[in-house]
Write a structure and sequence with these properties.
By secondary structure, this protein is mainly alpha-helical. It is about 70% helix and about 0% strand. Helix 1 packs antiparallel against helix 2 and helix 7 runs antiparallel to helix 8. InterPro entries: CHAD_dom, CHAD_dom_sf.
C-alpha cells in the first residue's frame, strides 16, 4: 500500500487518470441509455443522446490516446486490443455529429454569402449578390448530408447495440476499478517514466508541424496539404491528452487545437460543396453557388492555418 507522502509513481498518476476517464465513459453511457429511452418515457431525447455521445467520444479518445502514449506502463496484451476498439467506437460516434455540423455550417455560409453585396455576380447576370441558385444549392446539400447523417445514425445505433460494443463497455468497466499496469514500469518514478513518454509525443507533433507546407502568399493554396494538417491535429490532441494525464494544462494548446478543429470543419465543408457541384445535370446557377461556397470554405481553411501558426509559433507570424 502506498505511503501518504511517497513520491508519485508512473502507475499512480496514470492509474488515476485512466480510472477517471473510464468513470466518465460509463457515466456518459448511462446518460445515453436514459436519453434513448426518453427521460419521461415519451420517446428518445435527441439532445440528451447527443450530449452523451459527445461524452462517450471524449472519454474513449482520452483512454485510447493514453494507452498508446503510455503503452510501456500498461499490460500491452490487454491495452492494445482495447485501444483499437475505442478508436473504432469514437470514430463511429463522430460521424453523425460531423454530418450535422457540416450541414449547419454550409447553410449558414450560404445565407451569409447570399446577403453579401461583395460576392461577384454570375457571368451574364445583373445581380450583384448570390441569389440565383443558392436555394437549390442548399436543397441539394441538405439532401446529400441528411442522407449521410441518417446512415451514420443507423450505424451508431447498430454499433451501440452490438456485442462488440458491450465487450468494450465491459473492458472499460474493469478499467474504472483496476488498471492493468506493467508491474515493473508502473513502479518507476513519474518523471523517469511518464514524462519522457509525453515528451516523445510532443516531439512527434513538432516534427509534423515542421513538415507542414508554407502558409503565405508565396505558396498557393493546395487541398493536397489537408491530410498533413489533419495529422497535425491528431498529434496535437495526443500531446494535449498526455499533458492532461500529467496534470498539466495549456490554454494556448487548447486554442491551437480549436484552430485545427475549425480547419478540419472548413476543409470537410469545402469537400462537401465540391462533391455536390459534381452532381450530374445541375443548373449552372446552382453550380455557381456551390463554387462560391467552396471558395468561401477554402478561405476559412487558410485563415485557420494562419491562426494555428500564430498560436504555435507567434514570433514567426507577422
Amino acid at each position: 500500500m502506498a505511503q501518504p507522502n511517497h513520491d508519485p509513481t508512473a502507475g499512480d498518476v496514470l492509474g488515476v487518470y485512466l480510472r477517471s476517464q473510464a468513470t466518465a465513459f460509463l457515466r456518459a453511457l448511462r446518460l445515453h441509455d436514459a436519453g434513448a429511452a426518453g427521460a419521461g418515457g415519451g420517446g428518445p431525447d435527441a439532445g440528451a443522446e447527443a450530449e452523451a455521445a459527445h461524452g462517450l467520444r471524449g472519454a474513449a479518445r482520452r483512454i485510447a490516446s493514453s494507452l498508446s502514449t503510455f503503452r510501456a506502463v500498461t499490460q500491452a496484451a490487454w491495452a492494445d486490443p482495447l485501444r483499437s476498439e475505442l478508436v473504432w467506437l469514437s470514430s463511429t460516434l463522430a460521424d453523425e455529429h460531423a454530418y450535422a455540423a457540416r450541414l449547419s455550417r454550409l447553410m449558414e455560409a450560404l445565407q451569409r454569402l447570399s446577403a453579401s453585396p461583395e460576392v461577384p455576380a454570375p457571368r451574364g447576370s445583373a445581380s450583384g449578390a448570390l441569389t440565383v441558385g443558392s436555394a437549390r444549392a442548399g436543397a441539394l446539400l441538405e439532401r446529400q448530408l441528411t442522407l449521410a447523417r441518417t446512415r451514420a445514425h443507423s450505424a451508431t445505433l447498430q454499433a451501440l447495440g452490438s456485442a462488440r460494443f458491450h465487450a468494450v463497455a465491459d473492458a472499460v468497466a474493469v478499467l474504472a476499478s483496476e488498471v492493468p499496469l506493467d508491474p515493473v514500469a508502473a513502479t518507476g518514478p513519474l518523471h523517469d517514466v511518464l514524462t519522457p513518454l509525453a515528451a516523445a509525443a510532443r516531439t512527434r507533433l513538432e516534427t509534423a508541424v515542421a513538415a507542414l507546407p508554407a502558409t503565405d502568399a508565396s505558396a498557393p493554396y493546395s487541398a493536397h496539404a489537408d491530410a498533413a494538417w489533419h495529422e497535425v491535429r491528431r498529434l496535437l490532441r495526443v500531446h494535449r491528452y498526455a499533458q492532461e494525464a500529467l496534470g498539466e494544462d495549456s490554454p494556448r494548446l487548447a486554442a491551437a487545437s480549436e484552430a485545427l478543429n475549425q480547419h478540419r470543419d472548413a476543409s470537410e465543408a469545402a469537400t462537401a460543396s465540391a462533391t455536390a457541384a459534381r452532381t450530374p445535370r445541375i443548373a449552372p446557377a446552382t453550380a455557381y453557388a456551390l463554387g462560391v461556397l467552396h471558395a468561401d470554405q477554402r478561405h476559412a481553411v487558410e485563415a485557420s492555418r494562419l491562426t494555428f501558426h500564430s498560436l504555435w509559433e507567434p514570433a514567426a507570424v507577422s
